[in-house]
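Before going further, learn to read the protein records used in this course. Taken together, the tokens spell out the fold as the letters spell out the chain. A record is reproduced here so that you can trace the correspondence yourselves:

***
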Amino acid sequence: MLKQGSYLYAYGTNISGFAVYYVNIDGLSYISLNASTTISNLNWTSIPPAPPPGLEALPTAPPLIYKSVSYKPSMAPSLLDTQPMAPHHHLSSPAQKVVDRKIFPDGIKTSGQHPPLYDQLRPYSDFPQQIIGETVWKAEDYADNLERWVHVFNAEEINELSAAADKFITDKIPLTGITQDNFVLPKLSALLGSIRAEILNGKGFILLKGFPVEKWGNHKSAVAYMGLGTYLGYFVSQNGRGHVLGHVKDLGDDPTQIDRVRIYRTNARQFFHADDSDIVGLLCIARALEGGESDIVSSHHVWNTLQQERPDVAETLTKPIWYFDRKGEESIGEDPYIRTSVFYLERGANGRVYSKWDPYYVKSLDRFMNVGLIPHLTAEQAEAAQVLEETCHRLRLHMILEVGDIQFLSNEHVLHARTEYRDHAPPKPRRHLMRLWLATPESEGGWKLPFHDSAEKKRGGVQVNDQPPYAPLDAE
């Protein structure tokens, strides 16, 4: 860590356009690529004494603005009253993104996790007292009305999916290169368009039944599933290994090691959360012996309930005081955590309330809190997290995914959870869900989010450096 004293501090951009922080300490040059990182909250021991490859031109890259600052150990946020505006403090243009198709076969790279645009976050006073519309629903609206949220594939639809999958396999296109152009669904596309609109702007969920996974096997099922998904959004990477086809399966990872274990790789309960994408899809390949059942809730109904019962909690959840762990899945120069809110407003007039939450990522930060890099949760925050979970649980809609079911959910205005489960004894298969994370950019009807990548086709997701996308056919 830095010693107390005065240092020459510089910031600017390097020749590649990255935001760069530069400080000279005891004759050694230290750098950071993350614009949210300043000398008061960076663990400098993690930065090499020489710039990494590609940053040798840093000292002469224009513009560099120098200022003298005093530093003494303190909690985040930064000691600096004002911080420079780096490139990711503004909306990025997808037209500026040029990627190598040898690495990214569909020509689009997942943007990844980012802090919000703090200057576009709105105070609690701007949030609605009550949300109205189709996104606000109660469990009793749907529990006994399956026809309102369940669609059973008919023979014609399955035949169209089957033919498209067979052609894709015959054409020997990599699964990571699947698009609407090479997975054509002339008739089913109309249904999927209406489903997409309902997920984005309506109740936010649907259950599709009758997908013949046992007949098709993992390979053809994966092709048909991902091909279907391209009509809802652009698939994004779900972890640091570039998995665009995820697998929710117990691999024996220890769920108590939450600072480095992703819970979807365990059989533990998953509390109410939203994933780092606009839409999440789950295709059931095999059920557990017991448990592993699904709960969902309208986050807009939750918001209204909090406003009525605990407005103090609602206000706490709108403040950008929440740190989320990245669990080691960050690119060079990025912070290992993100400071953000739980509830946001869309950009622009009449912005809708957007939720982003996962308690496992909030409660796994002791390694940073205990050394003073970020503050511990306050009693107010701990209570807000508990009240949020309890409210979601009380208002939940419960469902069980059978083999061949596909659940698609909005991550904007629906939170989802899973009960703990126990698998069958071998040789019966373990519980297995294929997962898709799908992005819906603003230009194609997506929400106007307060993040710099909101206009990009593959906004959100998890992207580590230039890790290529990968679509494994089973968990690994």
In short: The CA atoms of residues 296 and 361 lie 19 Å apart. The radius of gyration is 23 Å. Confidence is low (pLDDT under 50) at residues 1-87.
